[in-house]
Design brief:
single chain; mainly beta; two-stranded antiparallel ribbon; four-stranded antiparallel β-sheet; Elongation Factor Tu (Ef-tu), domain 3
Length: 147
C-alpha cells in the first residue's frame, strides 16, 4: 500500500446529510508515536472501478444476491453508493518510509487511498453490536463468525 497520490484524477464527494451535535469545535490531537505503533489501522479508499452511473442506486440486494431482501444503500457495504468511500480495518505489519504493509485489505488494485487512521479500540470497537438476519446469513455463507 503506497501513500503517494501521484497524478490521480480528482474525486468528487456530495453530502448525504449534516451532523447535528453539541460539539462546536474540532478536537485536534498531536500523537506521540508514528502509525507503526498501532497494531491495526483504518484504511479509507475509493472504489475507482465502480461505474459512476451506479452511484445513484438507492435500493439493492446485498452483494447482488436475489435470495436476500432489498435494502437501502446505507444499510449495505456496497461500493455503488452516492460517495463510495469504503473502509477496512487491517493489521499493520510494517512501515517502510511512506509504504505501509498490511494484511487482508479488500480493496481492488489501484484503488486511491483517501485516508489512513489508527484503530483505537475505545473509539472504534463496539461490544455486542447487532446486525440484521440477512447480514448474519451473508457472514455465515462466507464462513465468517460475527458473534
Amino acid at each position: 500500500m503506497q501513500t503517494d497520490p501521484g497524478n490521480w484524477p480528482p474525486i468528487e464527494l456530495r453530502p448525504v446529510g449534516v451532523v447535528q451535535s453539541e460539539i462546536k469545535t474540532p478536537m485536534l490531537h498531536a500523537g506521540e508515536a508514528g502509525i507503526e505503533g498501532f497494531s491495526h489501522i483504518l484504511v479509507l479508499y475509493w472504489p475507482h472501478l465502480v461505474d459512476p452511473e451506479r452511484r445513484n442506486l438507492k435500493i439493492v440486494h446485498p452483494m447482488g444476491r436475489k435470495d436476500l431482501p432489498q435494502q437501502g444503500i446505507f444499510a449495505t457495504c456496497s461500493p455503488a453508493r452516492p460517495n463510495p468511500v469504503l473502509v477496512s480495518v487491517v493489521p499493520l505489519l510494517e512501515r517502510l518510509g511512506n509504504v505501509l504493509k498490511v494484511q487482508g485489505l479488500d480493496a481492488v488494485d489501484g484503488s486511491p487511498i483517501l485516508d489512513i487512521k489508527p484503530y483505537v479500540q475505545p473509539h472504534c470497537g463496539v461490544e455486542r453490536a447487532t446486525v440484521p438476519p440477512w447480514m448474519e446469513k451473508i457472514h455465515k455463507d462466507l464462513g465468517i463468525d460475527i458473534r
